[in-house]
Amino acid sequence: MPIYTATSISSSTIIWLVLGAGLCLMELLLPTAFVAFMMGISAFVVALLSGVILGKLWLQVVVWLLLSVVLILLCRRFVKPRRAKSKIQDAVLAETLTEIPAGKTGRVLYEGNSWRARCFDDHLAIAPHQQVYVVRREGTTLIVMPEYSSIQ
User: Fold this and answer.
1) What is the Cα–Cα distance from 140 to 146, expressed in whole angstroms?
2) What backbone phi and psi angles, to 5 degrees, belong to 107?
3) pTM (2 decimals)?
4) Which of 60, 72, 115, 119 has the greatest number of beta carbons closer than 10 A?
5) CA–CA dist 64, 47 (Å, integer)
6) Which residue from 105, 103, 93, 97 is spatially nearest to 146, judged by alpha carbons?
């Protein structure tokens, strides 16, 4: 007859602890926007409650799922991703260095640097050494409109 002490841990508690540690470590290796981390924290909470309150496995799984969803939603609400803001102001002038063929890219001189550029209107070509307005930036490509264009 085995003797159980107050420090003996049930097998379900060990499983929840291992699951929680695995999920938290997975967040370090494969960033999942804190989803795996929150699920790991939920597993730790269920491990603490498994011996005391939650006796049945199905109840432990339900509590883990509900707690995971709540923590993930709370995390999403308070931790918002930072988006890089474009530093291009409205209606900034640049000058074409090369021709920008219709629907293709060329080069413009903007703030002392040569940038890849494409015309806002895919059916419009822009000649070299023309003044253009920088409409926006898409990655490393500037979207421009000729200074003389009436298209807004």
Assistant:
1) 19
2) -125, 140
3) 0.51
4) 119
5) 9
6) 93
